[in-house]
Amino acid sequence: MSEKLNFPLPYDYSKDELNVYTFSTVSGVKYIAYFIEINYFETSKAYSFSFEKEGEGGRKTHDKRVAATIISIIKDFFMKNSDSLIYTCDNTDNRHQARKIVFNRWFKSHSKEEFIIHDKEKDNLLMSIIVENNNPLVKLIIEEFNDFFSLLE
User: Residue 87 is part of a domain; what is its CATH number?
Assistant: First the structure.
C-alpha cells in the first residue's frame, strides 16, 4: 500500500534573467525571491538567498503553499547550480529566531533530506548555509562557511 504525501502544491512562479522569482498567493500577497552571487569561498561559488513580501498588498494569513513555493524555487536553483546558498534571518524586528525555526521546518518537511543546512549564530546574527547532500565538496564548503562566519562582528 503506498502512502500518499499530503504536501500543498507550490504556487506558479515566474523567473527573470537575473534569478529573481515572483509569485502571488490566493490572498493577493506578492512575494519575490532572489539569489545574488557572492565571493566568500575559494572552494565553490556561493549565493545569498532572500525572499520577501513585495509591497503591502494582501491580508496576512498562514499559507502553507508559500513554504512549498520557496522550497520549489530553491530546488529549481539547485537544478542549475551545484553551489551553496547562504540565508541570513532578518533581525530588524527581533523575530530572527522564529524565522530560522520556520525556515528549517520548511526544509525538513519539503526537501526529503536532499540538503544539509548548517546554522551559525553570533549575537543577533543568524546565518545558514544550504548545500546539496550529494555535493562532493560539502565538508570543505561548510568549513569555509565556518571560517567566514568567525570573521563577522
Answer: 3.40.630
DSSP-derived secondary structure letter, 89: -
What's the rounded mean pLDDT across residues 7-18?
89
Task: Mention every residue, 6+ apart, whose C-beta is less than 8 A from residue 97.
Answer: 89, 126
- In a 13 Å sphere around the CA of 55, the CA atoms on its Cβ side amount to 9
Q: Is the pLDDT of residue 43 over 50?
A: yes
Domain that holds residue 26: 14-151
Please state the φ and ψ torsions of residue 64, each to the nearest 5 degrees.
-65, -20
pTM of the model: 0.84
Residue 67 lies in a domain: yes
Q: Which DSSP helix (H) or strand (E) runs through 151?
A: helix 138-151
Mean pLDDT of 61-65: 82
- Contact of 38 with 46, CB cutoff 8 Å: yes
